[in-house]
Amino acid sequence: MVRIGLMMLRTQPIHELSIDAIAGQAGISRSLLFHYFPSKRDYYVAVISAAGRRLLRVTKPDDSLPPDEQLHEMLIQFVAFITRRRTAYISFVRGAAGGDDYAVKVYDETRAGLTKRVLTYLGLPEVAEVPASSEYMRVHAWLAYTEDLAIEWSGLPEKDRQTTDKELVAHAIEALHLLRKL
Which has the closest alpha carbon to 59: 141, 108, 118? Predict the structure, then answer.
């Protein structure tokens, strides 16, 4: 059932998922869905949690690559993920921004996972465990910048994009290094 929600999330925001449509697609009754998920909110939490785990999984590069290439590959996959699932991704971000407790928690956990990964690629795994450090907060904020760039870039018609995805990633990495010097 969560897989069905993830598939539907590709084309519509989480709050627009219909429990009846999900149950119908699963070939079960609505009451059986509520047997596994006591409420619509519980189902939504399961779906967006799975989406957060998927984002972390698909953006995890090959561990055998050098750290700078791991960072580059992670960002290429991050931009690709946002581009492929832009509507659902925006719903995820805005759900968190809108203060939905369950969305905020999942979004925060996902962003923390990405932040820790970047810090490890930068050779700072010990900082990844100190969210109050200035280095952690800079990388965390830089991810927000990179995320917004990817959302805006992916929303443009391809013919109107002034840069390629690789150029966007190169810019984001350059911005990270500049921000770390401040």
Answer: 118
By residue count, the chain amounts to 182
Residue labelled with tokens 């590069």 = 61
**Cα distance between residue 118 and residue 168, in whole Å:** 17
**Structural domains of the chain, count:** 1
Summarize pLDDT for 44-89 with one digit per residue, the tens.
Answer: 889 888 988 999 999 999 999 999 999 999 999 999 999 998 988 8
CATH code assigned at 81: 1.10.357.10
Contact 78, 150 (CB under 8 A): yes
Q: Which two tokens stand for residue 43?
A: 């189902």
Domain span at residue 102 reads 1-180
Tell me the C-alpha distance between 83 and 150, whole Å. 7
pTM score over 0.90: no
